[in-house]
Amino acid sequence: MDFGEGLAKTFVRVKDAGGRTALHFAAAGGKTHVCKYLVQDLGLDANLKDRKGETPLNCATRGQQNQTVAWLAANGGNPNLGNDKGFCALHYAATNGLKDLMQLLISKGAVIEAESDGGTPLHCAAALGRKEAVKILLDREANPNKVSGIYTPLMNSISARSFECVNLLLKAGADPNLGWKGQTPLCNASVQGETDIIKCLLKAGANPNVADIFWLLQDGLTPLEIVGMHSNLAGVMILFPVTSRIPTIPNWSLDGIMKHLHSEEGRRQILSILIFETKWNGLKMFETVVCELNAEIHASLFNWGLKKKETFLLAKSRGEEAFRRKDYMDATYWYSLAIDSSLYDATVFSNRSLCWARLNDGSRALSDAEACVALRPDWGKAHYRVGVAWKLLGVRKFSEIISLEWKLSKPSLECLYLRESELYAWNFESPRHRLLQAASDGKLKLLKALGEELDFGEGLAKMFVQVKDAGGRTALHFAAAEGKTHVCKYLVQDLGLDANLKDRKGGDTPLNHATLGQQNQTVAWLAANGANPNLGNAEGFCALHYAAEKGLKDLMRLLISKGAEIEAESHAGTPLQCAAAHGRKEAVKMLLDRKANQAGADPNLDSNGLNPLHYAAAEGESEIIKCMLKAGANPNVTETSRKAIQQSLLLKSGGPVCFNCYSLLQDGLTPLEIAALHSDHAAVMVLLPVTSRIPTYPDWSLVGIMKYVHSDEGRRQRELKKMEMFLLSKSRGEEAFKRKDYVDAIYWYSQAIIASPCDATVFSNRSLCWARLNEGSRALTDAEACVALRPDWGKAHYREGVAWKLLGNLPMAAEAFAEGLKVDPENKELKVALRDAVEAEFGIPVSLGIRIIRME
């Protein structure tokens, strides 16, 4: 088979359908002598990849060939070279619980925290209950709280029903309350019915009163309700003594709880939660659903949920809502649930493909698009999705696919964009992406080589600033986020890049990225080499906010020593407020202890109408409350002077700010009332002795306060106060807008939103104010909220289009105007805006008669 090109090239060229060479086969079969011949005698690359990106070392690990793994690792095999989904040799060894191989790979430099589609090696081991593998990784300081996709190692081990792994992770510091999208470890254990794990989690500090999304549940059920629904009496007996009373259950006893959950009224309440207050798209009203499902209420979703059709409709609806919010990861989650319920619906595959595309994941976008084509080969949009995916993957073969879409459907606005980009704008070559990946992986030699390849005479420094991903992140941002300090040194010291470069998405600096990635060494180096710790992003978040939010004590000390401002303001307040809101007790204590010197944190500093004590009360952190009271926090504060806050924040930020109060808190309430509203007895007991009596409360005692805040009268008074506040704030906002005082108008509209967060007109008005102040990002946030609340309102889409135009994104602006015309076809303002946006983008006149195809 050697036709004169040499044996080495022949052995590389000859592959099977999966791209595997003789070296891959020899490694997988443990034929070390064949590997020696191919690598040592013929000089083949020990890191050859097949079509899925698997290396010979990966193949040998999967085949459990210890001797071959050892030889390859000692002769050029890179243990950190992952496949197309990021899986390295250590992931495979951990998944299969191969202790000896894991120790061997780690000794050869395998990265403990290597990321993949399935998470880190610790995620993989925990998911299959490999306790020995989990122990090895934890002994080498693997992060037990690492969130990958939607799971933590603890959540994985609970799903695997492995008590041993759960115990090991909790002892290593796993957070017993850390979940995703409202799915908590304790609720997961309750669903699994694992009483030993429930006990273990409670002992470690799991909160039994946190409700869980529980698949499709919007408002959620507590762990007690979940075990009760499953008739798990042992679980109920464990959780009952530690769970706060649930008002909807009339008889608060073991027998009463079980009877209620299995009664007609109990099932009715659960169904009420399931159907999300009767607001499903395309579903019937609550009473009708109850009648139709009365006999089948126990079916699916852990024997209590919805029939498949309803599950599909709800999941698809939630996916569409998430897509409108631009939360594409959440949308893929809901669309996946819809696909599980209905495997043959092409529109959902199409929608999920679009989400993957927006997340720049071409491989997954292509997989869903091809499934869509297989289901509906006569649908133009299916072929369009395939074309977009190929484009993302850097393959120039989408012209014929788009042409096919053109034949099958009338020209859509999306198709116009893609054809235009093909002709004029698209230059999506792989070296740019490889360069960013090399920075992220810390491959300095490859980074330099790719830099030379992409430099067209402007100089390396300018090239490295210009090459960015869709979020405006440069090689410096990627290197900082992954802790590749040597790459940062090369870019900043050798090439002279600005250490304070901001990305496009949020305005975060490399220092912010390094802090978010918990890369202590890189943070220290950047802070010592020109990085400004007080340079905030578009929301005002600095590195200290992120460190406080995550409770990273060492990083906080480092940043403060480098001049980070203790009282730096952000959308979410000061670092102290961020730490309090996330229950980071050590971080709160550290910031309050700084009071010993002149740069101390003020426990009464107000931001956005709330002081840190409000946040702590809302989060139920009684220890933090005690700490703040000891430091001098005022327990009687309800709100701060509006003008004082406004002037303070404007002076600090140098421009308009967003007064976005913490969503769970009601304006005008003391910390005591907030704690009582959350049924937090411990916090109420701490605050009651130091809080001045409130005249409207007839019984000023623990029981009296708890009864009053949850009484009809207490609720009525709060609702009246909120409505009065809403009407007054909206009126004052309109007055301020008329006199062109947009900052003042924004403040009053923000107060109106706090009182009534579902009023689309106020979001629309505030978006307009941000637009008048040239704040495109904030105008877009409000416009998207407006669209989510009233998707059938043309003005909402118009506001979104204006915001995109301010941000310089004409295609997205045109898309928003086009969506508006779908719901309001006669709107002249939208027609003119769409025409102007398309003409400005393409530089050619566009007829307003173009038919816009609705996305399915």
From TrEMBL:
Keywords: ANK repeat, TPR repeat. ANK repeats lie at residues 18-51, 85-117, 117-149, 181-213, 471-504, 539-571, 571-603, 608-640. Residues 299-384, 721-798 form the Serine/threonine-protein kinase BSK1-like TPR repeats domain. The keyword Lipid metabolism does not apply. InterPro entries: Ankyrin_rpt (IPR002110), Ankyrin_rpt-contain_sf (IPR036770), Cul2-RING_E3_ligase_SR (IPR051616), TPR-like_helical_dom_sf (IPR011990), TPR_BSK1_C (IPR058209), TPR_rpt (IPR019734). SMART domains: ANK, TPR. It holds the Pfam family Ank_2. This is Serine/threonine-protein kinase BSK1-like TPR repeats domain-containing protein.
